[in-house]
Amino acid sequence: MAESVPVRCPSCRREHRYTAPAYPCVCGAPVVPTLDPRGATPVAHRVWQDDWVTVRCDACGRRGEWPRPEVGCSCGVVLRVPVVDRDTPDDPQGSAAATEPPAPARSVTIRTALDAVTAGALYLRRLGYRGVRRADQRPPSGIGIAARGVVALVDPAVRPASLRDVECLWLTAMTESADCVYFSLAGYADDARARADALGIPLFVLEPTGTPRPVNAPADVLDSTGTDSQAP
């Protein structure tokens, strides 16, 4: 069960009730981090490595990287909630974690950028992509996630994705010799969509319910057929 803890803003002293997110492990079990509310700190500067946290699944022992829990205070401060590092099992990559069964179809209501990333990761796993993780290269905008054979961009911005955003994702995928997928909350500019069509990039809009909606032909095909990048 998700943990709910009090988190106090050090700037205005308001107290918030925060429920830890449940991350979707590839084994199908929810992964709920253990929070340390006493150590919540304001986010002054964004650092790529600090935006992610490693959490172990109690069911299979697999350790996965997920967006770090954060709380937005009404005073404008964003608080980062520390995660307690639980003991690692003797065989974290053992037989239970060696195979990755398809994740059950489910979605997450999008309220934060973290929710958007989780929705994108869930969808990639539902399509059959394995080893979903944080992308090795930090994108110029949005949040990058990757899996075997694919690089994806989750764009939580309130503006439509631009032509440059789409082309940067395509160039990143080219350097990785991988396919690419774009998830946006606010849709796409007309020239960005036209360029994606020409390059064969699947474009999805993330609905508030967390369901990715295909908005071009490559996305329709991917949504219908999934991927051949299945685990053996």
TrEMBL record:
Stretch list, region Disordered: 86-105
Name of protein: Restriction endonuclease type IV Mrr domain-containing protein
